[in-house]
Hints:
Blueprint: H1 2-9, E1 36-41, E2 44-53, E3 56-62, E4 66-73, E5 76-84, E6 88-98, E7 101-109, E8 118-127, E9 133-140, E10 147-160, E11 163-169, E12 172-178, E13 204-211, E14 214-215, E15 219-225, E16 231-239, E17 242-244, E18 246-250
Antiparallel strand pairs: 1-2, 1-18, 2-3, 3-4, 4-5, 5-6, 6-7, 7-8, 8-9, 9-10, 10-11, 11-12, 12-13, 13-14, 13-15, 15-16, 16-17, 16-18
Keywords: Signal
Signal peptide: 1-22
Protein name: YD repeat-containing protein
Amino acid sequence: MKKIIGLLSFAFLVLSSCSSDNDESSNLPNPILVKEIAVNDEGKIYINTNTYDGNKIKSITSQRGYVMNYTYTGDVITKTEDIDFQRGVTSVYEYTYKDGKLFSVLKSVVYDYYLKPQYENLKKYTHNEDGTVSYQFYKVNMVTGAEEGFGEISGKLTFKNGNIVREDWSDGSYIYEYDNKNSIYKNVLGFNLLLNTDSSPNNLLKSISIYNNYVNDPVTYQYEYNSDDYPVKLNAGVINGMTFPEVKYTY
Length: 251
């Protein structure tokens, strides 16, 4: 439950977004941006506060004691930092781009507040002519940061209407369904390049995971929307028969 709540607290962050080359949000004079996300966990309400510089996101701060900071280079996100208020920086993600598309993500993990980040893995993307995106993990020396060959995982992302509708890798797949409304981070500059479902232009309605030919129970979501077709409330989400907390969004 804590893991589910934590994911909801960041309102489906970071984590596969649209692959469009056009970032319509950069042309919006007054973009609609989510300012607060309230998670009701068994009667206790925890607020996550988002701060922006125009339509660039700066940070997401949770009352649970952590913050995610964003760094831009021009109009693209080049770094995110997960910070625990007690332990300090816990992980860092560094993003690189090629021809306006995401090329790689390097994850560093800080196991101790006093240690330098230790590189854990590098994920590289290939944007294919048919619109799919392939990825490959690489082994990275945790001391020097040097690449030392392929990792064990590779896969492919398939898109429809800018949303990831399928992710396949050697041991299984994820299958996704979306509504036709606006997602809460649709107008955040650079989010549409990050290649994760949490920053898709539409809202996730259902996800199904398949592992070694076993199909798990679907995860489903139900929303209420405002007059601009943005979600204002996540009424019910069900994972393996268990309902997770209600979430409200303020713009």
